[in-house]
Amino acid sequence: MLIGMSTDYYARLEQARGPQPSEPMLAAIARGLRLSLTERDHLFVLGGHRSPRQAARSDHVDVGLMRILDRLVDTPAMVLSDLGETLVQTPPAVALFGDDASNEGFERAMVWRWFTDPAARGIYPAEDHDLRGRQLVADLRTASARAGRGSRAAEMVASLLDSGAGFAEVWADHEVRHRRTERKRFTHAEVGDLELYCQILLDPDQHQTLLVFTAEPGTVSDDRLRLLAVIGAQRVSSSGP
Known about the structure:
The chain contains ten helices and five strands; from the N terminus they run ααααββαααααβββα. By secondary structure, it is an alpha+beta fold. β4 (192-203) and β5 (208-214) form a beta hairpin.
């Protein structure tokens, strides 16, 4: 359940009867087993792949962040890569945003979905779209500058510039830091409108971000957030073994 794979597939891997696991699958196993970076690298080598560190990958979530997530089972929380890729989510976060961590490639990144799939913006009120889009692009510019030419960040930028979906206009403004608001508004199809506070914890070594969403106690948003936690728990229960 932690890894997100069937028990049959996992049993076949343990018994050396299954196919060679892919890099995303090994990364999921490493997160599920709460491996350290050194242990994760060893797992990749055993699985027939290069060490993620050697391959300049940054999708391993630090064991410390995973322990924090383990204690946030009733709270929307997620870990993002420097490209804004959703690496792991709590069940309430899945209920709020959708199962973004299960996407592959650039589809895991909100900035990619924002400009290639207009439906991805539906969780935010229309009047917040411009601000949200500019924040995402500013974050991507920072990541791209840090990673340099030939990086996945540079590849994502090039692909978005070719998409013709409005990204080029925002990118041309060269914003690297945009006004942020601690309070965010959401429009959820099942529980309605929510006003949540977004707390950010940074992991500078991994260039990853932990986002935690909370509501002011006693408000309508607080009640709806509690309902969202129930929805998330029910979905996990129905999809488990």
